[in-house]
Amino acid sequence: MPHAPVLIVGAGPTGLVLALWLTRQGVPVRIIDKAAGPGTASRAMAVQARTLELYRQLDLADAVVASGHTIPAIHLWTTGQRRATLSFGSAGQDLTPYAFLLVYPQDQHERLLVARLQALGVGVEWRTECLGFEDQGERIVAQLRLPDGSEQACAAPYLAGCDGARSVVRHQIGAGFPGGTYDKIFYVADVDARGPAATNGQAHIALDHADFAAWLPYDNQGRGRLIGVVGDERAQRAESLAFDDVGHSAIASVGLQVRAVHWFSTYRVHHRVTDHYRRGRAFLVGDAAHVHSPAGGQGMNTGIGDAINLAWKLAAVLQHGAPDALLDSYEAERRAFALKLVETTDRLFSFVTADGSFADFMRTRIAPLLVPLASGAGAVREYAFRMVSQTMISYHDGPLAAGQAGAVRSGDRLPWVRTADNHGPLADIAWQVHVYGDAPGELAAWCTSQGIALHRFPFGPAHEAVGLARGAAYLLRPDSYVACADPQARCAVLQAYLERHLGAGTRRS
């Protein structure tokens, strides 16, 4: 019977990133997908700063940025007037090396990930479908349909369902998918357009009476993605609609003139989070675990975050002898974030698409007064950037959090120091310790005994500004979140943390 430590069902961005992270950590994988090959539609477009930071650990960030289009700002329009601008550069330049929104069509994104995985010696098995599986306690045995129509059993210690909103894996484990479906219907269109808004390389969101449109450019030449809402009177025949059938008032209000439509589709938006991310040896990842409105471009990035969170924990168990209980923290950390995300995007989506004269009044009269005031405040701009870029994600309340040093708490993403680029060492996907300032002599010996790299940085005003404490020890997880923070850099504290969560005598690298 074919065997792989991790069987990955689904080769979209989530499944591919999970395969890449596991492979980089030395865990063999088998990745299958019932499709004939990578996607051919642009679908998810936005790649957020936090995803690029994690891609940097895979040596992928530069290639993704070079292939995509960087958007430095988003402009908000109502009734034909520009009301506010969120500049990513001014809001995020001290937070991340990637202070912009990146537009990178999903079909191109998938092809790049597939190529990188092939370069590591792992090929996606296309036209291979998971029909079901049995969790036998010590392993999972999955039944696969191969490209020639024959069936094959495959054994694996763990299975990851990255197979989308209609997940076979989710149905198999009996996990619920509570939530609902919005009444509104969205449309998406890849177009060529002209006008100042089409060629300045920036994003535009327009709110008009009973209409909404968002423009995400692919370049500075007028190629881009339009997203909007289908009017209620047309929603009943959404499947037969063409671009000419949907409302264009919001599009016209920003001066966009559509010259050609290359792709057009409509779809309903769901908001759901599964009640179980794990059942025995099977896990749900990405859209198999959560779906929500496209507000903020969060969906694909959240799936990629799921994959990386799960990958290092699977590697710790399979490669380094960590207890299976470590894998329970995957659901605890990622489901909590998904619930917050669905709540946030639900509120934003409902505000943008609500019907009625009061809703129109709030969107076109009140919002234009409040948004410029809010966006003019530096703290508000930074908060908005942190939220959209996913650099705000933390696991403070998760089961792996322990300690605080300075303003940095365990569960935080390691703050980036612009003048020192302390994220550079994170390219080594492994546990490591960072100290900013002088480190106790015994700490280096302890790190050596544990197989953990120790990185020392001179302490200065830039480190203090981001909340790091002089002389403290920050034990970092392989996904660059702070596992344990100790102001006195005590080896005993770090040792106790590792033994509690990874097990006594567990190898760290």
UniProtKB/TrEMBL annotation:
Keywords: FAD, Flavoprotein. One of its GO terms (molecular function) is FAD binding. Signal peptide: none annotated. Its cofactor is FAD. InterPro entries: FAD-bd, FAD/NAD-bd_sf, RIFMO-like. Residues 4-344 form the FAD-binding domain. It comes from the Bacteria. This is 2-polyprenyl-6-methoxyphenol hydroxylase-like FAD-dependent oxidoreductase. The lineage of its organism: Bacteria, Pseudomonadati, Pseudomonadota, Betaproteobacteria, Burkholderiales.
